[in-house]
Specification:
Strand content: 5-15%
Strand order of the largest sheet: 1-4-5-6-7-8-9
Bound molecules: iron/sulfur cluster
Number of helices: 11
Number of strands: 9
CATH class: Alpha Beta
Structural class: alpha/beta
Shape: globular
Order of helices and strands: HHHEEEHEHEHEHHEHEHEH
CATH architecture: Alpha-Beta Barrel
Distance between the termini: 28 Å
Length: 282
């Protein structure tokens, strides 16, 4: 992957620094940064990480630090909205750490950020990648009521591997129920991501796709699991790009997902704006 560079990259970085904001793109050293931030015709996609950089959970595939969470920054919703306007993004992805320590696990703060962005420019498309909110419907409803364009929640892996891959407080059924609630209570598009290379069998992946379709999930992405450090889960295998392409075809042609982004470097928000708009125009 080509490293990001150029004036636009420098401008975006300084806007983020000025407002003390975090993006997953930078925090995770995402290899797609150059492609996503530049976009096809200009602005492109960036993923903001809300509610701090410390998580109340500890998933065994994830590099975010566990514990030591700080109080929420009440100015964060406005700061994110200002940064989005200044950078000139046309598609924004918001995600967060899990905040099981907060009374509503941060749902109101998340919802307020969506509203601030839409208040400034109703034309901006907002995708949110939300926690499971412990499966509490009233917390999920706060996000639905803020009317983002896409609600994503990651199932991460097949049912058998949920633990050890995810924190024990997460779960297959719980994640499916979050996605099902969104489709039951709104017309908002739903999305989820699956990592490959953790030891899953093909029939298990197929079953997961079927369960997601059963819950009316619209969009699915597949990417290769990469081990962030030696203390994280081992990579079981590097999946061949042809296999990623096969899953894309199964998802789009056989199971009728709106679209599927699938490839070793694909991440949940990979070129999310371009792919979403293209799929709607198809
Ligand atoms: Fe940022 Fe997501 Fe693109 Fe990576 S894939 S650069 S995290 S928007
Ligand atoms: Fe990482 Fe999310 Fe798990 Fe927290 S809940 S450790 S941010 S994957």
């Amino acid at each position: 992957m080509r490293p990001p560079s150029g004036q636009r990259f420098t401008d975006i970085k300084s806007t983020l620094r000025d407002r003390n904001l975090n993006t997953v793109c930078e925090e995770a050293n995402c290899p797609n940064l150059g492609e996503c931030w530049s976009g096809r015709d200009g602005p492109g996609t960036a993923t903001f990480m809300l509610m701090g950089d410390r998580c109340s959970r500890g998933c065994n595939f994830c590099d975010v630090q566990t514990g030591g969470m700080e109080a929420l920054d009440p100015d964060e919703p406005a700061n994110v909205a200002e940064a989005v306007a200044e950078i000139g993004l046309d598609y924004v992805v918001l995600t967060s750490v899990d905040r099981d320590d907060l009374p509503d696990q941060g749902a109101s703060h998340f919802a307020e950020t969506i509203r601030e962005i839409k208040r400034r420019d109703p034309g901006i498309l907002v995708e949110v990648l939300i926690p499971d909110f412990q499966g509490e419907p009233e917390h999920v409803r706060k996000i639905i009521d803020a009317e983002p364009d896409v609600i994503a929640h990651n199932i991460e892996t097949v049912e058998r591997l949920q633990w050890p891959v995810r924190d024990r407080r997460a779960g297959y059924e719980q994640s499916l129920s979050v996605l099902q609630q969104v489709t039951d209570e709104s017309d908002i598009h739903t999305k989820t991501s699956i990592m490959l290379g953790l030891g899953e069998y093909h029939h298990e992946v197929y079953q997961t796709l079927s369960d997601l379709r059963e819950a009316d999930v619209d969009i699915v992405t597949f990417g290769q699991y990469l081990q962030p450090s030696r203390t994280h889960l081992d990579v079981f295998e590097y999946v061949h790009p042809d296999v990623f392409e096969t899953w894309r075809r199964v998802a789009e042609d056989e199971l009728d997902f709106l679209y599927c982004a699938s490839g070793p470097m694909v991440r949940s928000s990979y070129k999310a704006g371009e792919l979403f708009v293209d799929a709607l125009l198809r």
